[in-house]
Every structure is written in structure tokens, then in C-alpha cells.
What does this fold into?
Amino acid sequence: MVRKRRVLPGRSVFRSPADRRGSILIITIWSICFLSTLAVILGLGVRQKLQLVQRLDERDKLHLIAAAGIRRAIVQIGQDRESTFYSFLDRCADDPSVFKDMEVGDGRVSIWYDFFDDVSSSRREPTGRREPTGGTTKIHYGLIDEEQKINVNIAGTAVMERLFEFLLGGDETRSQDLAAAITDWRDADSELSTPVGSAEDSFYRNLTYNPYEAKDAPLETLDELRLVKDMDANSMEKLKDYLTVFGDGKININTAPKAVLWALGMGTYLTDKVMSYRSGKDKALGTADDNVFKSAANIVSDLSQFTSLGDSEVADLARIVDQFLKVQSENFMARAVAHLNNRRNTTEVVAVFNRNGDILYWHEF
Ligand SMILES: [Ca+2]
Ligand SMILES: [Ca+2]
It folds into this structure.
């Protein structure tokens, strides 16, 4: 007996050409969908990679533009080697026509800093606050001379102590301890310079996390100060603009802030008289009417002609001039901020260099 193949109604075991075309169409559509998805995924990956390359490329470009800005600043300060004194009236201290929006390739770079005019401050005694007790801050396009700052490799303990007292809230013990700790950090011996409050190898060796030893040598960067006992981030932030590791330790009387002059032992009244001479009739620093000390030998006589000085003030000033002061600056810090045209991202390079063009410090952000 022959069994008949059972056929479902309306359906045939043999596919018609139309059915086959339908199946092929479905497979084709699926394939297209699959390939499209794959292409999108691959495309996204490629785009991400391209964006990354673009970003890296952009960052490199920004660094190059910032570096070009620093180079121009070095050339600028090198051109000015004839002058025997330096003040805020110097072109390199503030001149937007030179340092603002310098064009480099398809970008721009500006070299600027926050200029703090502390003359208008009515402070008579150290309050430990730099702002906003009366001084004003504005943007200056140019360089900061390192000679307006205290050199932590050279300054005596007493000078650092007074500076810290002025800037850190008048806490005498803390200022003494910190100054002593810096002295012991940089000196070659392992003896404490003062019986209490300071630190030497034994202190740093016993630190719980990552113990180390005292440097026993001059600091190479200011950042090293963070390793010194008691130098926390907060104090560092308040002090960093007033300290340097560059230069011969002499301070430029034309650019030093009040806190620095006070730290040298000038006392409040003498410091104010110097600041008043420097700021001129408009009582603002960095303006055209400023008076400038043009030679260290004439500082006392220049100030005496400007204002009355008592005998003890003359003697103090003469001693301080002899020990600490000059009227010229040799080392400069520049902060270059670069951006590409029509882009928002910026990159910063900070450098310290001298008039000979030697680069002493370089940091790319
Ligand atoms: Ca020591
Ligand atoms: Ca002025």
C-alpha cells in the first residue's frame, strides 16, 4: 500500500520560486542589518580613536604654543640687559602689547599673573592675611621676578620666621618651628638647630607612611617644601608666592611685597615708607608715577629726600640694604597659557629662567 504524503491545506512541500525569493530577501535584510550594526560599532570605535588622536594632537600643539610663548619671553628679557635696575615699570613686568594673545601657528598664548597691590592695605601689624584686607589684585601681562621673593635656600631662620608670622596668621611658635625645620632640612648636619619644634633625619625616618630622610642640601624646587615637617598644603598655598629657590638671596626693593620687606626686619613704619615711595602720588603700584630705586647705594638718600626718616630708621635701612637689598632682578617666572583658535581647551606651562636664557624650571600642566 502506498502511503500518501500528507499535505497541509494551503501548503506545498515544494517551495515556489516566489517563496525562495522571500527567504533570500529576509536573509539579505538580516545581513544588511547585521552589517550595518557592525559598521556603526566599528565606526564608533574608529571615531573614538580619531577623537583621542585629535585630543593628543591638540594637547601637543597647545604645549608647543605655550613653549613658544615662554621662548618669546626669554628673548624679551634678554633684550633688556643694558638696564641696571628692574621695577614694575619694566616692559617685562606688564605689557599687554607684548605678552597678551601672542599669535603662534593656529593658536594664541598669553603670559600673565595676578598682580597684588598691597600698598592700599591699611594693615599696621601682621594679620597673616594677604587679602582682601585692602590690597587689590589685577591681571598683569608679563613676568614675575624671583628677586621679590625670599630664597629658602639662603634666608636665615629669623627672616623666614618673620615672613611666616606675617603670612600665616601671626602664630609665633608655629612660624619659629617651620623656619627651624626648613633650616634643618637644607643644612648638611643631622643636629637639630633648635632643641624643640624642628626636625631632622630621626623625625622623617619615623614617619608612618613612606619614611625618608632630610635633604641635607639646597632645595631644587619649591615643591620640596611639602616634605618638610609642618608644611601642610594650606600653609604652602599661602606662602608659595613669596618664596623661591632661585637667585643669590638678595631682594629687589623695587618689586618685593610688604611681607618680604617686613621679614627682612624693616618694621612696619619703614616698610610703609618704602611702599609709599614706590607707589607714587596715586598710591597704586605698577602705575606710571611710581618711583624707582635705581641704585642700591642711593636707597637711603632717595628715601630720605622723599620722606622724613629718624636716625634709627636711617641706621636700620642702611644695615638692611647692605645685607639684603638690591635694585636689579636676574631670574623670572613666566606662566604661559595657550589655546587653539576657536577651541576652548587651554594648556599652561610655567617656567623660570634667567637673563642669559638658561631655563631653571619647567612644568607643563
Ligand atoms: Ca641640622
Ligand atoms: Ca603709582
Q: What stands out?
A: The mean pLDDT is 88. The first strand starts at residue 102 and ends at 104. Residues 12 and 57 are 65 Å apart (CA to CA).
